[in-house]
Amino acid sequence: MNEWGAAGQGAAATAETEGGGGVHRSGFACFVGRPNAGKSTLTNALVGSKIAITSSKPQTTRHAIRGIVHRQDAQLIIVDTPGLHRPRTLLGQRLNDVVRSTWSEVDVVGFCVPADETIGPGDRFIAGELAKVARRTPVLGIVTKTDLVAGERVAEQLVALQEVMEFADLVPVSAVDGFQVDKLADLLVARLPEGPQLYPDGDLTDEPEQTLVAELIREAALEGVRDELPHSIAVTIEEMHPRQGRDDLVDIYAHLYVERPSQKGIVLGHRGARLKEVGAKARRHIEALLGSRVYLDLHVKVAKDWQRDPKQLRKLGF
Ligand SMILES: Nc1nc2c(ncn2[C@@H]2O[C@H](COP(=O)(O)OP(=O)(O)OP(=O)(O)O)[C@@H](O)[C@H]2O)c(=O)[nH]1
After folding, report:
1. Fewer Cβ within 10 Å of end Cβ, the chain: N or C?
2. Protein residue with its CA nearest to atom 10 in ligand 1
């Protein structure tokens, strides 16, 4: 087709080079959508490995965790942002700042709306914010969780989504049964500039291991108590290193912060039974992540009103 398409060195991608042999694209994408829209699960489905943290309750993905999709023709780096929401605390404001700065850095944004929930004010709030960047960054409309509803409902949701804002493309997907996940990858890749591979083959995420470990502990600690302590737990890794003289065992010392003394009891449980379960569960996940045995030491501490205190927020990594 076009011999010059692959020559590439710094040449801008054009429509003519699309599909041309040898063209390699690389760049960044992120998914936005209200909490629970399925963004993390979709990232995992695209990357093909559990790296982002998923849960059935909102607001669990706090850090911009990247998943990397390696393909012959492209490398797509997915940045997973926290959910955008109306801020009520300093933490809320910081999270929204992270989201907005992410949007301005990526090549394409995917706006996720679940097929099984009506489009509401939360989605329109996000669309309003997204419209501000849409002139520079293409936004794809994604209807997620199509496996949960009948075909007509998916069609209705696509129509409803189209009315919320102008999209570069619209696509329905299911991360659970894999419906159109490859199609979505194609649509995202098509929006990336021509460029070389940015990460080595096999890299799935560049998020520091300690951040992932802290997220796994937080996830385990929130299990079953989210209604009581939805946003009140933060985790820091104080120390993490292989045990001296052992190459099959990693020692991890972590602090679990709650906001008030009364919450400490909830996390600990009767005679510390709950914390023990949390530790066992987190340890299993961390062992799977690190591919090594793990000794996990967890301490619960009270950091009074950490969500409202800039000094505490900095200490906890926000
Ligand atoms: N049936 C079905 N469930 C899904 C699908 N994708 C996600 N889910 C479920 O929906 C819930 C929320 O998914 P997440 O991927 O954690 O959603 P999120 O948008 O990343 O949520 P936040 O991190 O809170 O912003 C989880 O219980 C998932 O298992 C899907 O394609 N089909």
Report:
1. N
2. 38
